[in-house]
Amino acid sequence: MTGPVLELSGIRKTFGGVTAIEDFSLEIFPGEIVALVGDNGAGKSTLIKIVSGVHPPSAGSIALDGQPVVMSNATMARMLGIEVVYQDLALADQQAVYMNLFLGREPLTALGLLDRRRMIAETEKLVKELDVRIPSAHAAIRDLSGGQRQGVAIARATHWASKLILLDEPTAALGVAETARVEEIVRSLKKRNIGVLIISHSLDQVFRLSDRICVLRRGKQIGVRDTKATDKNEIIAMITGLKQG
Amino acid sequence: MLEEPIHMTTDTRDERVRAVPTLSRLLARPELGAVAGALLVFAFFAVTAGGSGIYSAKGIVNFLEISAQLGILAAPVALLMIAGEFDLSVGSMIGFAGIAIAIPTLAWGWPIWLAVLFAFAVCGFFGYLNGLIVVKTGLPSFIVTLGSLFMLRGLTLGIMRGVTGRTQASGLHEYSRDDWITPFFSGQVLRTPVAWLADLGIIGKRADGLPMITGIPMSIIWWIALTLFCTWLLTRTRFGNWIFAAGGEANAARNLGVPVARTKITLFVFTALAATLFAAIQVLVTGSADTLRGNLKEFEAIIAVVIGGTLLTGGYGSAIGAMFGALIFGVVQMGIFYTGIDTDWFKLFMGAMMVTAVLFNSYVRNRAMRNR
Ligand SMILES: Nc1ncnc2c1ncn2[C@@H]1O[C@H](COP(=O)(O)OP(=O)(O)OP(=O)(O)O)[C@@H](O)[C@H]1O
Ligand SMILES: [Mg+2]
Predict the structure, then answer these.
(1) Among A102, B24, B256, B357, which is least packed, fewest CB within 10 Å?
(2) What is the pLDDT of residue B30?
(3) pLDDT tens track for A16-42
(4) What is the predicted pLDDT for the residue at A209?
C-alpha cells in the first residue's frame, strides 16, 4: 500500500488570542475522500487554508508524499499539486470557461501568445471526462447555472492538482439535482488517484461520498471514523459534543 | 438560441457541440452599441449636412483627427477600465506633458527629441505612482487619480509660471522643424497614394488646383495602431487575460496567481504614456504648449470608452469599441460645426449620446443573455 499523500501532524493555529485549530493530525491517501465536518466556526475553513498555503500553521508539520513541506503562500501549494475549490469558487464571471480553467497559468504558443486552441481542446477533453455538463467551452461563466459553475471550478482544480483537492462546501448553494451532479464529479476524482478533503454541512452527502469522516469541534479534533463503520447519530453526537472521540 | 435551460437536460451530447448562434454571439459583442451609434450619426449628418463637405476628403480627415486625438487616450483608458480602474488624471497629464516638452526646449536648450523622451519618462513615472498608490492603499482609483488631476494641474501651472513667468509657450516649431522625432508626431503619411487619388479625381481639389489634403496625419495612424495593439493585447496575450481577470474578480484572480497589482500598475503607466503621446502630437503640430491643455479629456475618454461598451464595473469591454466611441465623438463635433448648429450644443449631444449608448448596450446585452 502506498503512503499517505498528505500527512498533518500536531497542526495548531491561533489568530491573536483565538485558537482556531488545536493539535490536529490527519492522513489522506491517494484516491481517498475524507470529509471534514463540524459546526460553524469549528475551524474547517481555517484548516483548508493551512493546507493550501494561505495561513502558515502556528505549530505542527505538513508532509506531502512523505516529504515535509513549508508553504509560505498559495502559489507554492499550487506548485506542489494542491488545488482548492473555494467557497466563493473564484471564477472570472465575464470570461469563457476555458479561460477560467487556465487563468493565471495560460499556455502560450511558440510566439508567446495565448494558445487558445490548446486551452479549448484540453477544456473539452476534461469536461467530457468529468462529465461536467456545460453548453460549450466558450460559454461565459455568468451564463452558467450554479452547478455548472461548481463543475467548472472542480474541473479546474482537477486539471492542475497532482496530489490533493480541497473542497470547501462545494454544494452549499446548489439544488438537489445539481448537488447530485457535483457529487458524481467528486466521486470520479477517486479514479485519478487524487486525495480529496471535502468540507460539508450535509451529513447525507458526507455519508454518500466519503471514505472517512473527521470531526472538528471548536478547533479540537474529536475523532476520525471510517464511514462504513459509523452512523449519523455517532457523527452528530461528536459534532455537538455529546460524545468525545 | 437554446430552447431550454441547459442544466435541466439529461442528454447533453448534442448540446456540447451546439455552438452559440452567430447572431446571438454578435449581439453580445461589447462594440455593438458603438458601431450602431457611429452608423446612426454618419447617416444623420449625411442627411443634415451632406452637402456641406463633411464627407469630403478634407472633412473626413478633419473629424478623424479629432477622433484620433481622443482615441489615442481612449484605447489605453479602455484597458484600464476593463481592469476595473479609472484614471482621471489623463487630462492634467496632457497639460503637464506639454510643458515637460516646452520647458526643456525653450528654457534649457534641449533638442526636441530629448524633451519628448523626457516627458514620456516623467509622465510614465507619474502613472506608475498613480498605480502604486491605488494598489498599495486599496483606495478607489477614482479618488486617487482625482487627487492627481488637481495636483498635476497645479504642478503644471506652478512650474510653468515659475520657469517662464507665463502660462503658455509658443514658437516651438522653430526647434522642432528639423528634428528627427517631429515626423513621428506631426508628420503626414501616405502622401503618394493621396496624390494619386487626387489626380484620379477621387479626392477633390481646392480652388488653387492643389488637392484638399496632402496626406494622412500621423495622429490618425497612432490612433489605429494603438487600438490594434490594445486589441491584440486583450485578445491574444496572457497580459490581456489578466486585465479581464483583474477587473472581473480581482480576488479570484489573485487566488489563482494572477499578478493583479502588477497588471494594474502597468496600465496606469500606459494611460500616462498615452496622455504624453497626445501632448507630443499637439505640441509638435501647433508649435505651442499651454498649461490648460487637456482639460476634461479624462471624461471625454471615459465617454468614448463607455459608448464603446466597456462596463464601468470592469471585467468586460473592448478597445475597438472605444475606437468607435472616439469616432462618434469626432463626427458629432465636426458634424455640428458643418450643420451650422451652434457648437455650444455639442456637449449636450455627447452627454445624451453616452447615456443612450449605455442604455442600448445593457439592453442588448441582457437580451442576448436571456436568449441563450
Ligand atoms: N483571519 C482570521 N483572523 C481571526 N480569526 C479567524 C480568522 N479566520 C478564522 N478565524 C476564527 O477561527 C475560527 C474558525 O473559523 P473557520 O472559518 O475555520 O470556521 P468554519 O469551520 O469554516 O465555519 P463555517 O462552517 O461557518 O464555515 C472562528 O472562530 C473564526 O472567527
Ligand atoms: Mg467555512
Answers:
(1) B24
(2) 81
(3) 888 999 999 999 999 999 999 999 989
(4) 92
- Quote the radius of gyration of chain A (alpha carbons, Å): 18
Which among B262, B138, B129, B256 is positioned nearest to A74, based on CA atoms? B256
A122 interface with B at CB cutoff 8 Å:
no
Low-confidence residues of chain B: pLDDT under 50: 1-18, 372
| A6-90+157-240 CATH fold | Rossmann fold (3.40.50)
pLDDT given for residue B370 in this prediction:
57
Q: CB within 8 A of A20, min separation 6: which ones?
A: A13, A14, A43, A46, A219
- Using an 8 Å CB-CB cutoff, list chain A residues near B249: 90-93
Q: Verify whether the Cβ–Cβ distance B237 to A112 is below 8 Å.
A: yes
Nearest-Cα residue of chain B relative to residue A124: B16
pLDDT per residue over A223-232, tens digit each? 999 999 998 8
Pairing of strands A18-28, B216-217: unpaired
Whether the per-residue pLDDT at A121 is higher than 60: the answer is yes
Minimum CA–CA partner of A111 in chain B: B237
For residue B294, give the amino acid letter. G
Taking an 8 Å cut-off on Cβ atoms, the answer to whether B251 and A90 are in contact is: yes
ipTM over 0.85: no
Contact A21/A13 with Cβ under 8 angstroms?
Answer: yes
Question: Per-residue confidence at A244, pLDDT binned at 50, 70, 90?
Answer: low
For chain B, the residue count is 372
Q: What is the pLDDT of residue B325?
A: 92
Would you say the C-alpha torsion A113, A118, A124, A130 has a positive or negative sign? negative
**Structural domain count of chain B:** 1
Structural domain of B334: 31-45+54-167+179-366
Bridge partners, residue A168, by sequence: A199
Tell me the domain boundaries of chain A.
Answer: 6-90+157-240
Place of cell 455650444: B344
